[in-house]
Amino acid sequence: MEMSRREQALVVASIEVRQKYEKEEERKAKRKARSKHI
Prior knowledge:
Oligomer: single chain
Structural class: mainly alpha
Strand content: under 5%
Number of strands: 0
């Protein structure tokens, strides 16, 4: 199935957004874990 340029851009953008969001969540989780140790 051939995707138009716009569709490809949307897919790439959504992947980048998801990766950025997951990194943020990971950082928050690490911070929480660290504060629990104290």
